Amino acid sequence: MTTADAFVHVFEPASAPGAPTVLLLHGTGADEHDLLPLGRALAPGAALLSPRGKVDEHGANRWFRRLREGVFDVDDLIARAAELAAFVTAATRAYDLDPGRIVATGFSNGANTAAALLLLHPDLLAGAVLLAAGAPLQDREPDPVDLSGTRVFLGSGETDPITTIDQARLLAAQLGERGAEVTAREHPGGHAVPPRVLADARRWWQGSAF
Ligand code: MLT
């Protein structure tokens, strides 16, 4: 059985009573500490659960293998998303968190992984902030799961050379077709998160009643 020890992680308890939990999923080459300030800024007072991706790509932490930039090992992604989902469930129990109020926030490889959790484990998350995300299953059509009641914010760069805007739009469509309430914010930049997009994400979070 998977336990909360399955991933190296940081856990910060909520400082506000009844606050949701932010599941933070870092980008390639970062670790469990990278997105803690983002989590605090987006959701002040929330609990933070921040694991470290287990795939080692020449010393860089990732969540799943890729064959080269932009080409994923989708079978590995599916297996690792299942392992991560089991960890989140175990940590939810271990830290006595509300399982209905887990909201993922990810950047790049972490955002792709959060998108995979939404599409493959539709009951795990109440919502997600996906920054520089594309369609994680690539040319495979995701199952027709029910994501109604799930709120998703996407921040995507129109000139992103790594996660193309077409991939981001495909993900937005896949989520929307499955009933998620999608807010898609496109910016003129590349593989980054401009301050205005963060400000929009923060406003979106405040209006989301997680
Ligand atoms: C990926 O998941 O590979 C991202 O889209 C790109 C990256 O993490 O470098």
Helix content: 25-40%
Largest sheet report? 7 strands, mixed
Strand and helix order: EEHEEEEEHEHEEHEH
> What's the total count of β strands?
11
- Helix/strand/pairing class, anyone? alpha/beta
Tell me the name of the CATH class: Alpha Beta
Number of helices: 5
Strand content: 15-25%
In CATH, the homologous superfamily goes by the name: Alpha/Beta hydrolase fold, catalytic domain
Question: What is the terminal-to-terminal distance?
Answer: 29 Å
InterPro entries: AB_hydrolase_fold, Plant_Biomass_Hydrol_Est, PLipase/COase/thioEstase
Protein name: Phospholipase/carboxylesterase
Keywords: Hydrolase, Signal
Domain Phospholipase/carboxylesterase/thioesterase: 14-202
How is the topology of this model organized?
Blueprint: E1 9-12, E2 21-25, H1 36-42, E3 47-51, E4 55-57, E5 60-62, E6 66-68, E7 71-72, H2 74-94, E8 102-107, H3 109-120, E9 127-131, E10 151-157, H4 165-177, E11 181-187, H5 195-206
Parallel strand pairs: 2-3, 2-8, 8-9, 9-10, 10-11
Antiparallel strand pairs: 1-3, 4-5, 6-7
Helix pairs in contact: 2-3
Pfam family, one: Abhydrolase_2
Protein name: Phospholipase/carboxylesterase
Domain Phospholipase/carboxylesterase/thioesterase: 14-202
Core attributes:
31% helix; 24% strand; Rossmann fold; 210 residues; Plant_Biomass_Hydrol_Est; hydrolase; binds D-malate; Phospholipase/carboxylesterase; 5 helices; alpha/beta; 11 strands
Quick description:
By secondary structure, this protein is of the alpha/beta class. The protein has helices spanning 36-42, 74-94, 109-120, 165-177, 195-206, and strands spanning 9-12, 21-25, 47-51, 55-57, 60-62, 66-68, 71-72, 102-107, 127-131, 151-157, 181-187. Helix 4 (165-177) links the parallel strand 10 (151-157) and strand 11.
